Amino acid sequence: MAKMKILQEDKSYTFRSYFELPYEADDILAEFNFALIKAHLSLPQTNQDLKELSALKQRIEETLPFISLSNETARRETLVSPILLEVIRYCHCQMRIEYPLAINNKLKGNLDYLLRLNHNFLVIEAKNDDLTRGFTQLAVELIALSQIQESSVLYGAVTIGNVWQFGKLDSSQKQIIQDINLFKIPGDVDILVSAIIGILQGVNNL
């Protein structure tokens, strides 16, 4: 029996729409002919010396007890932005916030954060408290970006501030790998930043 289509041909969808749809991520991605694979994702790690990260970790540890993380804005300003600004300090990448991207009526909207260094990109989606649906939105954003970038591999991450999860799009295989590992802040700040910089530097890229 033919599978019922989720997306309506005559309807327009933004990236946010996929966060709100009551369907599983694999069913939504199938609409774009992509498969979802959940597995351990071996992320690149930079060889750069990140010794100053201990100061960032300490600042987060000292301030977290006094901050309410009850909304997305608070999580962005107190946890996400400081980490990304630290990434920029180390690798001098470009960062676009609320970056508009429009491919067609089913692939359009704003990317919360788009980081770029040379020909390497990283999409970051910041959500309030739903990592699962946030990853679905991230995956669709990666599919949209793959339509205009020559690279066959793109990375992304979804975060609720104190937890991060990575994904990897492989356009040649028509699949998106959802990392089963989670990075927790502040404990995993060093390995998280190392992975972000490693992705942007193209470490281990063939």
Give an overview of the whole structure:
- The protein is α+β, with helices and mostly antiparallel strands and 206 residues long.
- The chain is built from six helices and eight strands.
- It has helices at residues 15-20, 25-30, 53-63, 72-91, 131-146, 189-201, and strands at residues 35-39, 94-104, 107-117, 120-126, 153-159, 163-170, 175-179, 183-184.
- Strands 1, 2, 3, 4, 5, 6, 7 and 8 form an eight-stranded mixed β-sheet that branches.
- Helix 4 (72-91) packs across helix 6 (189-201).
- It is globular, with a radius of gyration of 17 Å.
- The N and C termini lie far apart (41 Å).
- 36% of the residues are buried.
Q: Which sheet architecture does the biggest sheet show?
A: 8 strands, mixed
User: What share of residues is helical?
Assistant: 25-40%
User: What's the mean pLDDT score?
Assistant: 93
The amount of beta strand, in percent, is 25-35%
Determine the structural class based on helices, strands and strand pairing: alpha+beta
Summed up, the helix count is 6
The low-pLDDT segments are none
- By oligomeric state, this entry counts as single chain
Say how many strands there are: 8
Task: Report the radius of gyration as a whole number of Å.
Answer: 17 Å
Q: Alpha-carbon distance between the termini?
A: 41 Å
Shape: globular
**Topology as a string of helices (H) and strands (E):** HHEHHEEEHEEEEH
